[in-house]
Amino acid sequence: MKKQWIMAWLLLGHAAFTGCAQQGTGYQVQPGAIQTRWTNTVSPSNALKEYPRPQLQRKNWTNLNGLWDYAITDNDAATANSYEGKILVPYPLESALSGVKKALQPEQLLWYRRNFSQPTVQEGERVLLNFGAVGWEATVYVNGQEAGYHTGSYTAFSLDITSLLKKGSNELVVKVSNPLEKGIGPRGKQTLSPGAIWYTPSSGIWQTAWLETVPADHIGGIRITPDVDRSTVTVIVQAASDAAITVQAAGQTVKGKANTPIAIPVANPRLWTPDDPYLYDLAITLGKDQVKSYFGMRKVEIKKDEKGIDRIFLNNKYTYNLGTLDQGFWPDGLYTAPTDEALRFDIEAIKAMGFNTIRKHIKVEPARWYYHADKLGMLVWQDMVHPSVKFGKPVSKEAKAQFEKESAEILEQLYNYPSITTWVAFNESWGEYDQARITQWIKTTDPTRLVNGHSGAAIVDGNLPDHASREIINKSVNSDMTDVHSYPPPTLPAKMPGKVMVLGEFGGIGVQVPDHQWDDIASGWGYGGTVSAGEMKKRYALMTDSLVQQEKRGLSASIYTQPFDVESEQNGIMTYDREMIKIPFSELRAIHQKLWPTTRNYAGLTAHIKAKMVDTGTTGYKDLVAAYEKGKRDPSFLRQLTVRARLEKDKEMRTKAANDYIRQMKDPFQERNLQFIKNFTYSASDAGFPILYNNIAKVNAVLGKDEAEARITYAIENDEIKPYLPGGSACKNPENGSTGTRPDWASIEKNAVKKYGRLGQEIVWQSRVLWSVNNKDWEAYEQNLIPWFKQFGSNRKWIGAGLLNSLGWSVFEQSTNPAFLEEVVKMTAHALMLEEDALLLDTHANLLYKLGKKEEALKYEEKALAYDPGNEDLQKAFAKMKAGQPTWPQPGDESK
Questions:
Q1: 247 lies in a domain?
Q2: Which among 67, 201, 330, 636 has the fewest CB atoms less than 10 Å away?
Q3: Distance between CA 541 and CA 549 in Å, rounded?
Q4: What is the secondary structure of 446-492 as a DSSP string?
Q5: Alpha-carbon distance 59 to 193, whole Å?
Q6: Between helices 696-703 and 707-716, what is the axis angle to 10°?
Q7: The domain that contains 208 carries what CATH number?
Q8: Which domain-ending residue is among 183, 214, 245?
Q9: What residue stretches are annotated with the Beta-mannosidase-like galactose-binding domain (predicted)?
Q10: 141 and 197: one domain?
Q11: Would 229 be classed as within a structural domain?
Q12: Last residue of a domain, one of 170, 199, 214
């Protein structure tokens, strides 16, 4: 079993835009990374003012979006005794558009409060309070009394608050908890530690809240099922009683009863397709309650084409699903689009690119997004939001129950949208369990759509080895398709009778676009690295040529990653702010035309969406350097030059520009400035070093625990340790005592302590441990590991469970000293308190076993297997422990 560790400091930072204040409201957009063209059009008076539920629309409603009071308390608080300020609903707490931009911790509660006037209510009428979505747990109070409770970040809920209302002003309070990875609820790609493919959370109310007045007998919901072959549509009106209803649709007026299927003829149906997304109006009356809705006539199924290949058929016609992976994040609103126009824009842009399919990835959008997909003509693959689980751990019973509860609500809530043609049960084994059962449950619940039982059952790099094929087959039980993820180049998944072959994800080519990045400091990434826009176009065209050949062999769908950059991912076709496009729309459509005809109804979209073309060259870096040499020194220029110099690996220019920029900072303790200082301090001679070193507590108060020390450590290592290691620049001088195979740690420590005190000592001790294990100096390792851990390694943020696991495993493999092994067992026990996973449990078990504590070791190894039951290394170790055989390397083993 191979275990490796990597020491890294997470380099985070943010470019900023100036907040826009709305006079007289106390509201201001908070400075953030970048903004969209809609950011400054948002105000308390127009926050998502459209009716939020197009498929069950009433006239009599009151939008509750706007400014609310907010407070953050500990999670044991019974109420918020005071409120901190105003928040703009429905933008998440963490977003710039909320006007707050604060992170909600798992041990905290978020409180909302506002007053509203009692709606005019006739005798017998009811007042419903509706929420599009609240992340994750919401308890609602009206006039101090609990009105209801809901869990689930992605589904709507409605409460009858009639009995709690009083004349005049009424108080509405919402208490929210969002524990994210520390809870049991599906959270999508939200995380407490954003980076790579994981993003900033969206806590609290993130979709529209509204009131509506309804008769006592009213329509609770509608279930619409088109039947293209029989030219009918069946409507079930959900209500509390089997009251008489009238349905008007397709020129027909049909009477019936609630909760009973009503079949309505649709003569010569005009079928819904991406080319012609025709929608029929639907009006329903139940007593005094009247609602408007719509439907589309379409069907989707798996059939064989004229060559006998299993294909996706839309309305009895083979339709290749040419798609892209849309994650639904915004730099200003996070989960919430700034405006309804912006929400529609994304679908329009994707259509103008030439795609006919969107895979909505690990998120459920507001109802109006699906309405726009219906109107514009976009096929949608809708992901379920995977169960809450940490990688390397099994899904708990509670998390499974919550996943199935919320998935059932998603299936019900999204059933009527004709654009949705495919459900995706699981993605890349993220919390995957009972795949066959869950897939069949979805198919039984909704037999009108296809089900992808496991997108990315295997993840490959263009080649499909036998073990990956077996994995795909095993994880495609009851699925309508076999699916593989291949990065960057596309490939075919395993073939199975009766199932279509699809490519659930591929591509992800990265192009960095300065001034349009969520984080201009940290290096953005794409699969396979980052390239110029011109190179991206070449690679994209080649990948499409490959798809053309794979389509001939049976591929029926492909999903490109992705239409827009998202936070640190810069692998979108457009930038995160939706301002720049990396391949022109017309050229994308021409490339796609080789694979599948682009839809005919994109005309006019290109002019509407407007996007600037990214420079196709490698960089304009030489021009920036020339401007610097001519004396250009304004702050924004220096910041851009610093970032570009790092990208070009020009260390000399990077240092010059960064130091010039830092020296101009008027307030270095703003978060944006500290992020820059942290990321561009490489040496004690850099301008940012004294700011960090002389203000550790102040810096950590802004950036977080140990952030200052982490970067100071990095700089001191570069100055005081690396030059004195064998092969380092200072080793050329024999007088420093470091010319042998071992560093002169005593001299290095003396110099570091003289300059930096206890922090210098900590850095040297840490470096000595890591150097000794990497260089297999086991004598020094045994002497220094435990003293370092006891003094320093047990309380630093950057010394995580993964590093301690790797250090412990090296001891297990190499040491026979019982006293040393005992101390290391204490170290791995400490690591297990930080985070449990299969590998750490295995390391702890093996150490115990080597000490002769067999029964205790077996308990931990059994627990490791529960986390990762398919791990052959764990299975072998467990078997050897039971048999009393050594699990550590023996003479002649390659692993030693």
A1: no
A2: 636
A3: 13
A4: -TTSEEES-BTSSEESS---HHHHHHHHHT-TT-SEEEEEESSS---
A5: 43
A6: 120
A7: 2.60.120.260
A8: 214
A9: 110-184
A10: yes
A11: no
A12: 214
Are 365 and 483 members of one domain? Answer: yes
Residue 841: CB atoms within 10 A of its CB come to 25
CA angle 433, 435, 439 (to 5 degrees): 135
Domain annotation covers residue 834 = yes
CA angle, residues 46, 50, 55, in degrees to nearest 5: 165
CATH number, residue 467: 3.20.20.80
Distance in angstroms (rounded) separating the CA atoms of residues 765 and 17: 42
Q: How many domains does the chain have?
A: 3
What distance in Å separates the CA atoms of residue 165 and residue 119, rounded to the nearest whole number? 9
698 and 573 within one domain: no
Q: Return the sign of the alpha-carbon dihedral for residues 690, 696, 700, 702.
A: negative
Give, in order, the Cα–Cα distances in Å from 529 to each of 184, 510, 512, 536, 691.
35, 6, 10, 11, 33
Q: 3-state class of 282 per DSSP?
A: strand
CATH number at residue 815: 1.25.40.10
Count CB-CB contacts under 10 A for residue 342.
Answer: 21
Give yes or no for a contact between 139 and 113, defined as CB atoms under 8 angstroms apart: no
Q: Which amino acid is at 504?
A: G
244 residue type, one letter: A
Closest residue by Cα to residue 336 from 499, 118, 557, 95: 95
What is the token pair recorded at 628?
């610097």
Write the DSSP assignment of 639-668 as a string of letters.
HHHHHHHHHTT-HHHHHHHHHHHHHH-S-T
Of 576, 563, 562, 561, nearest in space to 513 by CA = 576
Between CA 669 and CA 675 the distance in angstroms is: 9
Q: Divide the 896 residues of the chain into consecutive groups of 10 and give the mean pLDDT of each group.
A: 34 40 72 90 96 96 98 95 96 97 95 95 93 97 98 98 96 97 94 90 98 96 97 97 96 96 96 97 97 98 97 98 98 98 96 96 98 97 92 82 97 98 95 95 98 96 93 96 97 97 97 86 77 93 97 98 95 96 94 92 68 69 92 92 86 96 93 91 96 95 89 93 78 48 89 94 94 92 94 86 92 94 95 88 96 96 86 92 92 57
Total-model pTM: 0.85
528 with 426, same domain: the answer is: yes
Three-state secondary structure call for residue 695: coil
Helix (H) / strand (E) containing 360: strand 357-360
- Distance between CA atoms of 294 and 531, rounded to whole angstroms? 45
Give me 143's structure tokens.
């006039």
Q: Dig out the tokens for 184 from the structure.
A: 């049991």
Considering the domain architecture, whether residues 308 and 455 belong to the same structural domain is answered as: yes
Distance, CA of 158 to CA of 545 (rounded, Å):
49
**Residue 719 falls within a domain, yes or no?**
yes
